[in-house]
Specification:
Elements: E1 2-6, H1 15-20, H2 32-44, E2 51-54, H3 61-69, E3 74-79, H4 86-94, E4 98-102, E5 116-122, H5 132-142, E6 143-155, H6 160-172, H7 183-190, E7 195-201, H8 216-232, E8 242-248
The protein binds S-adenosylmethionine (SAM).
């Protein structure tokens, strides 16, 4: 199993940017690099008229954007509930390759063995970290050989300051089902996969999330400084605040 921990160059102008589309501006400037890199990883998955499943998809917007970018591919957005907002009805009418299904990420029983090319979740894994073994077993059952399991925008817990701020925010919002994640967990999850890439972001960029878009220029500059620091001092990688995880079966 190949394991790679790194901070990639933010892929500007690629298919990830097209997939992220106008949603780009919704994220704080300091987080745009991580979403772009995550969407680039989704876009790079080979999908020969394939099947792509979103887990923990919430409102279902990313599944719709993905279905729009890949009309040749069947896309199923899943969560513990079926999203029924007016937008979902519109997307379902416009995109015949999109559907939504109620399903726990641990139990994708409606899918056959080896049927999916891609399973992904955004802000998902930290809700599932109590049973990563069960999660991987189900994903490995459903994925085709060479298929990918991708997590976008997950919190890392090695940095004590970041962990403390997250704990305070979770306590203030009375959120009980969120965990920080650790590199050792990814290594364990990766054992049954052929490769695992962990993309790390936001060292000094983490507090930039609190700034408004008026400070986008500063956030972009700090993002560049973070990238430089991660590449020149790889020991800092574990102290990043957020990551994407790309597992290949
Ligand atoms: C932070 S939200 C992320 C939603 C969406 N992916 C996004 O990026 O906006 C986490 C989502 O995970 C879902 N969730 C939590 N536990 C789950 C489980 N065991 N199976 C499926 N979905 C789950 C929640 O219902 C929620 O919609």
């Amino acid at each position: 199993m190949k394991f790679r921990l790194h901070s990639p160059e933010v892929p500007l102008g690629g298919p990830g940017e097209k997939l992220l589309g106008p949603g780009f501006i919704r994220y704080p400037a300091s987080d745009r690099g991580i979403f772009l890199s995550g969407d680039e990883a989704l876009s790079q998955t080979k999908l020969p008229r394939g099947l792509a499943i979103e887990i923990c998809g919430g409102h279902g917007e990313l599944a719709a954007r993905f279905a729009s970018a890949h009309p040749e591919c069947k896309v199923i957005g899943t969560d513990l509930y079926v999203p029924e907002y007016p937008e979902n009805r519109k997307w379902l009418q416009e995109l015949p390759n999109l559907s939504y299904q109620k399903a726990s990420a641990f139990d994708l029983a409606f899918l056959q063995n080896g049927s999916a090319d891609l399973i992904w979740g955004q802000a998902a894994l930290h809700h599932l970290a109590h049973a990563p073994g069960d999660l991987c077993r189900e994903a490995l059952r459903v994925l085709k050989p060479g298929g990918r399991l991708i997590f976008i925008f997950e919190p890392l817990g090695h940095n004590w300051l970041v962990a403390a701020i997250r704990a305070i925010r979770m306590s203030a919002r009375e959120e009980g089902d969120e965990s920080n994640l650790y590199i050792s967990q990814f290594k364990k999850m990766a054992e049954e996969f052929s490769s695992c890439e962990v993309q790390v972001f936001n060292l000094l960029g983490y507090p930039m999330k609190a700034l408004s878009d008026r400070w986008a220029g500063l956030a972009a500059w700090v993002q560049k400084v973070d990238g430089w620091a991660f590449r020149h001092f790889p020991g800092l990688l574990v102290y990043g605040a957020n990551c994407n995880v790309v597992l290949t079966k």
